[in-house]
Amino acid sequence: MKTETTLNKTEEGKSKVVVSWTGGKDGCFACYKAISECNFDVAYLLNFRDMKKSGSRKINRELLSAQSQAIGIPILHIDFMSYEEEFNLVNTTHSLLMDLCSKTG
After folding, report:
1. Does an H or E element contain 77, and which?
2. What is the SS3 assignment for 5-73?
3. For 76-91, how does the pLDDT look when each residue is reduced to its tens digit (9 = 90+)?
4. Is the pTM of the predicted complex or chain greater than 0.90?
5. Which residues pair with 76 in a beta bridge?
6. Hey, is 104 helix, strand or coil?
7. Which residues of 12-38 are buried (b: 16+ CB within 10 A; e: fewer)?
8. What residues does the Diphthamide synthase domain cover (predicted)?
9. Which of 23, 37, 9 is nearest to 102 (CA)?
10. What are the residues whose beta carbons fall under 8 Å from the beta carbon of 13, sequence distance 6 or more?
11. pLDDT per position as a tens digit, 8-52
12. How far apart, in whole angstroms, are the C-alpha atoms of residue 105 and residue 87?
């Protein structure tokens, strides 16, 4: 069974997308490529934090928020306690983001 997601478009015809964000070089590079080469409108950065993993909790949210402000893309922080909860949060977040993107044009 194939599922498709309809991406909301900006007035310029760009598809709105969300980029997973940990604050590292890989996510930053992916965001850059999405904007510069794929011509996407990155509507949000999305940061998941596993509350059971000590390293994940050490990521400084103030730093991530500062990065978000510096590049002008809002960030959403989401905490989870288990894989199942993370999976459910991804589904819920997807629905919420699609709704937000449709309301912001």
Report:
1. strand 75-80
2. CCCCECCCCCEEEEEECCCCHHHHHHHHHHHHCCCCEEEEEEEEEECCCHHHHCCCHHHHHHHHHHHCC
3. 888 877 657 666 767 7
4. no
5. 46
6. coil
7. eebbbbbbebbbeeebbeebeebbeee
8. 16-86
9. 9
10. none
11. 666 677 888 889 898 999 989 999 999 999 999 999 998 887 667
12. 27
The two structure tokens encoding residue 56: 């994940």
Contacting residues for 56 by C-beta, under 8 A, at least 6 apart: 49, 50
- DSSP-based three-state secondary structure for 97: helix
Amino acid at 5: T
Amino acid at 94: H
Domains, the chain, in order of start with CATH, read 16-103 (3.40.50.620)
